[in-house]
Amino acid sequence: MKRLIVIVGPTASGKSVFTIKLARKIKGEIISADSRQVYCGMDIGTGKVTKREQKLVPHHLLDVASPRNNFSAGQFVKLARRAIADIIRRGKIPIIVGGTGFYIDSLVYNIPLPEVKPDWKLRKQLEQKTPAQLLTILKKLDPVWAQNVDPKNPRRLVRAIEVSKVTKSQKFNITDFYKQKVDAQFIGLAPKQKKLERNIAKRLMQRLKQGMVREVSKLHAGGLSWKRLESFGLEYKWLALFLQKKITRAEMLTNLKRDIIRYAKRQMRWFKRNPNIRWRTN
Which residues bind ATP per the record (predicted)? Predict the structure, then answer.
């Protein structure tokens, strides 16, 4: 068996349930590779496994950062490597699971991550721009990185611009790293598109019933600005706008469902570039 097992796929593809079953069967422990599940208090909106599910199988890299602070791919890799070493030392099998492709690739393929400190003055200038405008800026600075970054994620775009201004160029295409031989077995979950969209719609309504609106309201009451909440995208963006009465509930639901479906498609485009993933549609 490979040293690592990596479970990937779009949001609402059933990764969590599948991975818990697998971990219990092979005596594994789970390392979450989700850029939002690292934050404390962001539970329902991110689809974080419940406390009950965490008791079934040990989970790592959940609730390791405050949502007030930024969390980088470099921080993820550092903590994930520490967790992997600990799991292996105890005779268990580490299972990486998540939908944040860059985190997973950075960890498994040792993609170099430049240590560039945040430029707050630059960030303040860039936060006024749309994702399309940010992507245009990045293309001029580093065309290669612009091809690899999520074009709809303003946080990722701002960070890419910030790093590119210091390092000048990423100087690699991420697909080149997939040619390496790594001690990892990749499994991808990819339901048919219509089924995935039904899953997304059903899950969205479940999360609303579970208290997702209250969760966002509580985060704001705890000190997170509406702007910060919106920066997390998807559920937190549209619910923050709804709670500010900038959109109606119907608009929130329509826009949120649309954006989650678009996000799932972007996730699949990222993962489909990796020829090492063995895909399961059922």
Answer: 9-16
Residue 12 assigned ligand-binding role? yes
Q: How far is the first Cα of the chain from the last one, in angstroms, to the nearest whole number?
A: 23
Residue 14 is assigned to a ligand binding site: yes
11 is in an annotated binding site: yes
Prediction pTM value: 0.89
The list of the chain residues with pLDDT below 70 reads: 1-2, 168-172
For CA atoms 144, 155, 202, 282, the dihedral sign is positive
pLDDT for the residue 170 = 55
Helices (H) and strands (E) in the chain, counts: 13, 6
Angle of helix 234-243 relative to helix 212-221, nearest 10 degrees? 70
13 is in an annotated binding site: yes
SS3 128: coil
Tell whether 209 is in a known binding site. no
Q: How far apart are CA 67 and CA 61, in angstroms?
A: 14
Tell me the backbone φ, ψ of residue 9, rounded to 5 degrees. 155, 170
Q: Is 9 annotated as a binding residue?
A: yes
> pLDDT at position 219, please?
98
CB-CB contact of 107 with 19 (8 Å):
no
